[in-house]
Amino acid sequence: MNEIPKRTIIQKYHVRGILITVILSLLLIFSSIMTGVDWSEFFSNLGQFFALLGRMANPDWQYLNVVVQPIIETIQMALLGTTIGTAVAIPFAFLAARNLVKSLLVRGVTRFVLNLVRTLPDLLLAALFVAIVGIGPTAGVWTLAIFSFGMISKLFYETVETIEKGPIEALRAAGANKIQIIVFAVIPQVINNFISYFLYTFEINVRASTVLGYLGAGGIGVFLQRSLSSFRYDQTAVIIIAILIVVVIIDSLSNTLRERLL
Amino acid sequence: MTEKSKFFSKRYKWLFWMIPLAVIYLWSIIGLSFSGIQASAGEVSQSIIYGLFHPDWAYVYDGSGEDLLSLIVQTLAIAFLGTFVSGILSIPFAFWAARGPIHKTLYWRSSSGKFVLVFIRTFPELVLAIMFIKAVGPGSFAGVLAVSIHSIGMLGKLFSEAIENMDLGVEEALVSAGGNKFDVLCLATLPTVMPEFMSFTLYRFEIAVRSASILGMVGAGGIGTPLLFAIQTRSWSRVGIILFGIIIMVTAIDWLSGVLRKKLV
Fold first, then answer.
1. Residue A132: closest CA among chain B residues belongs to which residue?
2. B126 in contact with A at a CB cutoff of 8 Å?
3. Which residues does the UniProt record annotate as the domain ABC transmembrane type-1 (chain A) (predicted)?
4. Chain A residues lying within 8 Å of B246, measured CB to CB
5. What share of residues in chain A are helix, strand, coil (percent, to 5)?
């Protein structure tokens, strides 16, 4: 006998779907009230926004000469920051990897610290470091170092956890110690992924470092802030175009390198 | 080439890579004008650590609407609303940028879409926030607008990749059963990619929470404004409690979104 499959009440009246819709709409209404959304104001002032865009559409090309030096500074900041962050991240990545460290305590504490570091947004770190070391690219390098430390350590320990056990066991059987196992069994397996992630983080840091200067942490952001506060939107446009060009070049460079690696 | 020289060139190839690398690093270190660390650095970091261990608990809730809890909720509201709007706005951009399997000749269409998305991604979110502040005045609404426009860059890219990697069987089945383009879109394409779209949107929400918490530094609402103020006035116990608040908020949202995403995919 064929029977028509019965549906439970929850399925029949689409309880889950309706519930999700209601929750979502309530959240939407609540957050609109919280943030004071006023679409009429938005549409009535849209002209002002487009006037601003219009002024940005006529870039002040003369300003390009001024922009080149800080853009280069931005790249240098990103490079040093990423490198310092990576160097510090590597030992932490090994400590957090499940297949290398058996002690739950060590692993747990390491992962907890890494999670804490990762929650901090980049500009927040920049504001803190500007307060600590003073205005200038030094603050930017420190910010990016901490920022990339959090990101890279996670990417790295996830890579380390995917490696093959064979070489580790072979070395252990031959009597190698922990350091020797890491150097001869783990690193050769992960080095290509590590370099690829390093380049990826570098890309992200180049993007991030362009705004760090807004709070005084060096690089092109300083000029971004200067042009915006003096209402020279034609100069802002030049800066944004310069950032776009640099980001596209760095991205495609790092993409080509990464494709070759993997 | 003899065996030995082959071995030699293979073995020491990395050395040749070291030379340009060393040059690049030297160039960066010399090029950066390290202004030197200011004299009070040690003192300031000590007071920051002191502040972190002695947070200003009175700030957590005082009923004025300017306390930590209400500003954290406001930050979450900015991120939620911004991500929601951007999730909807990204869908047309995604179809624009996706490279279709059939129309091999229409590369210019997807390439132009991809370029627009790169442009949106690179346009600094802070500048966008400042532009919206000019339009709607300082406050969280400007933050919502900034998040919703900026997120299109990343969401559009992720969505279009989801469309490119989609299973085409369902579409073909509908076409062969006589469905028109609209049927295919509503009954095959969108249902296939929806779980992925929602998962990406949740992921972007995590990022939006982080950026909403710093947008306040330029006056676009949320927890960033009092944070920057506290750092500038050097009230470190206030900074400590706000940092605590941000860390707890981000951790909770990451966890929640992780759970939800696991259920989706």
1. B41
2. yes
3. 71-254
4. 119-121, 124
5. 80, 0, 20
Task: Extract the tokens encoding A146.
Answer: 């901490």
Domains of chain A as residue ranges with CATH: 56-261 (1.10.3720.10)
CB contact under 8 A, A135 and B136: no
Domain ranges of chain B: 50-264
Write out pLDDT tens, residues A3-33. Answer: 777 777 777 778 888 898 999 999 999 888 8
> The domain at B50-264 falls in which architecture?
Orthogonal Bundle (1.10)
Residue A174: Cβ within 10 Å count = 9
Q: What is the pLDDT of residues B12-65, one digit of tens each?
A: 777 777 888 888 888 888 877 666 667 777 888 888 888 888 888 888 887 777
Contact B33 A136 (CB under 8 A): yes
In angstroms, the CA B68 to CA B227 distance is 10
pLDDT digits (tens, 9 = 90+) for A46-95: 888 888 888 888 888 888 888 888 898 899 999 999 999 999 999 998 88
Residue B68: Cβ-neighbour burial (10 angstroms; 0-12, 13-18, 19+): buried
CB neighbourhood size of B255 (10 A): 11
What distance in Å separates the CA atoms of residue A57 and residue A236, rounded to the nearest whole number? 10
What ipTM, to 2 d.p.?
0.82
Query: B14, B117, B122, B233: which to substitute to probe chain A, counting the most A Cβ within 10 Å?
Result: B122
Closest chain A residue to B76, measured at CA: A31
